[in-house]
Structures are given as structure tokens and as C-alpha cells.
Write a structure and sequence with these properties.
By secondary structure, the protein is mainly alpha-helical. It is built from 6 helices and 2 strands. The chain starts with 7 loop residues before the first helix and ends in a 17-residue tail after the last strand. Bound molecules: zinc ion.
Length: about 170
């Protein structure tokens, strides 16, 4: 027994690898950025249609188009920037998700493509709010059968290489 001492570097390797595998709300990030870009584009189109129609038919209404378009573009910019920020600051997903939902909801009231973009943003923001980081979820090993260390009787996760209590190496039967 105990021919092989557990190499501490092996445990370090396992630990650092699981730390690097950080979960990201990819769907929320993608929908928010996509929705935000949709709103920016439609805002730009609305604004440019107002500029193009200036002094022809719409008259004073055209300046309203420009204003609405610029506001839409700003809303879309906020939504897409916060969508990208969500990827970096995933731990603040609730705050960021609320901002995305609020700004997307305003954009949703807008015209044409802004409504579609706003809808995507609202869905992305809601996904961000309800997002559960991997470390908060029950560990996958909880649902799998555990093994008992033959040396000390400790309950060990199914994917453990060595017993965390006594260091018994499971590779040696
Ligand atoms: Zn053990």
C-alpha cells in the first residue's frame, strides 16, 4: 500500500483547469449584441430617412424622424455595449440584464427594425437576469453515483483520481 505518493502538482493541475472553465451566458450576450446592432441600424435608417425627406413632403415631421432615429441608435448602442460587458462581468449579470431589458424595452416601442432588435434585446436581458453561473448549479457529480474509498471509507466523486481525504490513488487497484 502507498507505493505511489500523490503528486501535489497533479491536484494543482486539476484545480487550475476547473477554475479556467468559467461559464458564460453566451446566448444572452449574443442576443443582446445582435438586438442592439439591429436597433442601431434601424435608428440610423430612421434618422437618414428624416434627413432625406427634409423639406420635401414631411416638413417639420422629418426632424422628429431624425430625433427618434438618433434616440433609437443610442438605445441600441447601450444595449450592445452592455451585452458585450456581460461577457466580461458575468458575475454582475442581474444588474446588466436589467439595463439591457429596460433599454431594449424603450427600443421595442420604436419603429420597424428597432422593434425586432428591442425584442431580441429584451430576451437577451431576461436570459442574463435568470442566468445561473456554473458554480451555483449542483455539481454534476451529485447526480452521479459516488464511490467509496476502499482505504478509508470516504465518499468520493466519480471522477476523482485520488481520495481527497487519505490520498489513496484509485488507479492502483
Ligand atoms: Zn481514502
Amino acid at each position: 500500500m502507498g507505493q505511489q505518493q500523490t503528486d501535489p502538482r497533479w491536484n494543482d493541475l486539476i484545480g487550475s483547469r476547473s477554475d479556467e472553465r468559467l461559464d458564460r451566458p453566451v446566448a444572452a450576450v449574443a442576443l443582446s449584441i445582435l438586438g442592439g446592432v439591429f436597433v442601431i441600424i434601424s435608428g440610423a435608417l430612421i434618422a437618414s430617412s428624416g434627413i432625406g425627406a427634409e423639406s420635401i413632403v414631411f416638413g417639420p415631421a422629418s426632424s422628429a424622424f431624425v430625433s427618434i432615429g438618433v434616440i433609437e441608435a443610442i438605445l441600441g448602442l447601450v444595449v450592445s455595449v452592455f451585452g458585450a460587458y456581460l461577457y466580461d462581468a458575468t458575475e454582475r449579470h442581474v444588474d446588466i440584464g436589467i439595463v439591457i431589458v429596460v433599454f431594449s424595452a424603450f427600443a421595442f416601442v420604436g419603429l420597424g427594425g428597432a422593434a425586432l432588435g428591442g425584442l431580441l434585446g429584451v430576451v437577451g436581458g431576461v436570459l442574463a437576469i435568470v442566468y445561473t453561473p456554473a458554480e451555483d448549479r449542483p455539481a454534476p457529480s451529485d447526480s452521479l453515483p459516488r464511490r467509496v474509498c476502499l482505504k478509508c471509507g470516504w465518499l468520493v466523486g466519480p471522477d476523482a483520481k485520488v481520495c481527497p481525504r487519505c490520498g489513496h490513488d484509485f488507479a492502483e487497484i
